[in-house]
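Weekly modeling sync, notes
Attendees: AB, CL, MP (scribe)

Item 1: holo prediction request
CL wants a bound-state model with 2,6-di-O-phosphono-beta-D-fructofuranose before deciding which constructs to order. AB pointed out that an apo prediction alone won't tell us much about the pocket. Agreed to run with the ligand included and paste results into these notes for async review.

Input as submitted:
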Amino acid sequence: MELARPSRKTNGVGVQVGDTQVCVVMVGLPARGKSLIAQKAQRYLKWLSIDARVFNVGNYRRKGAAQPTADFFDVNNAEGERVRRAAAEAAVNDMIKWFKHEHGIIAILDATNSTKSRRRWIKDRCDSEGIETLFVESKCDDEDLIMSNILEVKTTSPDYKGQDPEKAAQDFRNRIRNYEKIYETIDESEQDLTYLKIMDVGKRCIINAIQDYLQSRVVYYLMNLHIKRRSIWLSRHGESMYNVTGQIGGDADLSPRGEQYASKLPELVMQSFEGQEHPLTVWTSTLKRTIATARHLPKEWNQLQWKALDELDSGVCDNMTYAEIAEEYPEDFEARDQDKYNYRYRGGESYRDVVIRLEPIIMELERSENILIVTHQAILRCIYAYFMKEDQERSPWLNVPLHCLIKLTPRAYGTEKVVYKANIDAVSTWRGKGSKALHEDPTEETESLAK
Ligand SMILES: O=P(O)(O)OC[C@H]1O[C@@](CO)(OP(=O)(O)O)[C@@H](O)[C@@H]1O
């Protein structure tokens, strides 16, 4: 059986990357969400198996120097300017090494890059190494947004560790004022640059001179991001008749315990609101077990069925138990355990294939506000891997218990998780590597979505 292995040309998820290497250069005053954008872009690209790394110039500066003094960011402080320039050079040198020796595909240079001369210098360095540049400017004049960013992110920054948050915020505002004195937005004089200018967190965007598919993919993703507070609720369908018999795939009905979960789900969702009502949209797959699970939810909540949320297609093994598969297709069974992410069922799919078809779902999730997704074990593993940065080795082995609701809330750095258990018994559908049977108690090391 041929496994879907990634190749450098196509990276295995159908993204044509060829020999393209791109440096995404963040541009913007402090507290404009640059680091958040950089982190999200990296997470998205890695999820798609595109090797991406963030080079944060602030971290290089901190490595080389003690806590910055009050006048460190003053435009007239030559020593401050020298240290900042040295940090940028160290970051760019490391980035070029990474492209050359580790064959990275997308680097994200996270710094203010606030002057035309700094941007020109980066472009020239990259040009001479055959690396494309894509400048991404986050421009925001909305005072409320800037303030909430200052308070949420910057007062927890390593520069202000252990300091009084009020003082830290004041110092940070001074730092912004210093940058404002020299800040040059990307304008007509830089039309030879490839850039995306995001104004007021996505209200308006300007795109200039995009050169290829890979760049357009990054730009499309960044244009869809928003930073409004919202949550994503995840649930498997209630226990199905196939779950009870240990069969995979199919389109079975809910078991009596699965029906109980469906009846309890509205209450569980209300509990997760913790006193605050939220408008919700419900997404299910097109299979009976997810639609039945969502059917008691309030009628005023929009419901959408997505084919892309259907369970991983197990091809010729559909409707079989794991023991039957091990008996009938022993080599396949073994191959799947060896490389579960890449193994593609005969006539069916691999986890890697599922990620490709989930990409529009992720894009839509990024654009949306509160969404409840009722779907399947393999699909939830892939969606969870995107939000929680799980790697491909581990994600197909995550334990996704039946009958619990998981609430994810994306925050500036990382995603918060809260689990609500229905306390309705169900079989376990988790199988460990090398085993033909399902396990009631996954091993201690097994990561669970519900913990
Ligand atoms: O990748 P593995 O671990 O086999 O898990 C996926 C399997 O989970 C199952 C249950 O065993 O999901 P579901 O409950 O949605 O039916 C199978 O249908 C599916 O093939």
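Recorded for review: The CA atoms of residues 54 and 108 lie 5 Å apart.
Action items: CL to compare against the apo run; MP to circulate these notes.
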